[in-house]
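Bug report

Summary: structure tokens for Translocating chain-associated membrane protein differ between web form and batch submission.
Environment: batch mode, default settings.
Steps: 1) Submit the sequence below via batch. 2) Compare with the web form result.

Sequence submitted:
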Amino acid sequence: MAFRRRTKSYPLFSQEFVIHNHADIGFCLVLCVLIGLMFEVTAKTAFLFILPQYNISMPSSESETVQYHYGLKDLVTILFYIFITIILHAVVQEYILDKISRRLHLSKVKHSKFNESGQLVAFHLSSLVWCLYVVVTEGYLTNPRSLWENYPHVYLPFQVKFFYLCQLAYWLHALPELYFQKVRKEEIPRQLQYICLYLVHIAGAYLLNLTRLGLILLLLQYVAEFLFHMARLFYFADENNEKLFNAWAVVFVVTRLFTLTLAVLAIGFGLARMENQTFEPEKGNFNTLLFRLCVLLLVCASQAWMMWRFIHSQLRRWREYWNEQSAKKRVMVAPRLPAKLIKRESGYHENGVLKAENGMSPRTKKLKAP
């Protein structure tokens, strides 16, 4: 990883050089953007990378508020925060996870999963706190009707838009990290699945102006994922510690039910009762019957797929547990037969006659007459 002193050097811009120094390269690029803020000529371009774009002042009852909407310039901001995320990823790996994994003496497979869960615990915890703060301050929890009222929600507060940009940056950074972290080929399809699922759902909520509903669903999802990866970390530290997995299983099922309920309530009933149900993409309005059906189908399909995988893993886990228990019972119940000493004569039998080992018949001993 980056920031580590190494005795071995690699050719400049070779594959190994990029892998071992990708965080340092990202830090240099970020530093160039920050230096651009110091000069008037480049300050405007630097702000394009750092701050969310497309702001507009809107009058309110007290004073003017600044709102934001999305556009192509958001890609530049996301790119900048991808490099920020790569740097933070390297810091967590270098100064926290590597030190813990050295003490645990994990195998290669467990070491890879430990790093994955460690990174996701840090991300889910920070995102969970941040998302909860945004939801509470914006009043989405206290007023559930705000999830669908006044749709489309084209104009976003700063913290909502910035949250979505950072979320997209993190999950986009996870794609090159599969290469930088040298993830095993067997693990890549599994990780690609959940990375793509997050990107599709977050980008869909952002582009279809369902940001309020997306925040609540992300909050529920991150609670379950945080518990799962915490349970994995405790399991790697002590394989007998599986209590958190039971807590995660309960939370996982509850979050699936809440996710489906909220999606059906907000999209199936809330948006269906809105007066404006015309397809106007230039105004950000996608509230049509086909749109609602597609979104509900996507949400229900993803939740059903996650639930199927959960049930499959739980059944496999229980099967392994009962197999171990039955094997232990067989060992305890099986009687121990006493070992019998069998004295064998040297040689072998041929046609009922005992032969010596050299093939000769043994000589019969003559008995002395009394």
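Above is the batch result. After comparison, the two runs are identical; trailing whitespace caused the diff. Residues 365-370 have pLDDT under 50 and may be disordered. Residues 289-333 form the longest helix (45 residues).
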